[in-house]
Amino acid sequence: MSRIGKKPVDLPAGVSASVSGQTIEIKGPKGTRAFKATDDVTLTVEDNVVTVTPRGKSKRARQQWGMSRTMVANLVTGVSEGFKKELEIQGVGYRAAMTGNTLKLNLGLSHDVDYTPPAGVTVTAPKQTEIVVEGIDEQLVGQVAANIRQWRKPEPYKGKGIRYKGEFVFRKEGKKK
Question: CATH second-level architecture of 83-164?
Answer without folding.
Answer: Alpha-Beta Complex (3.90)
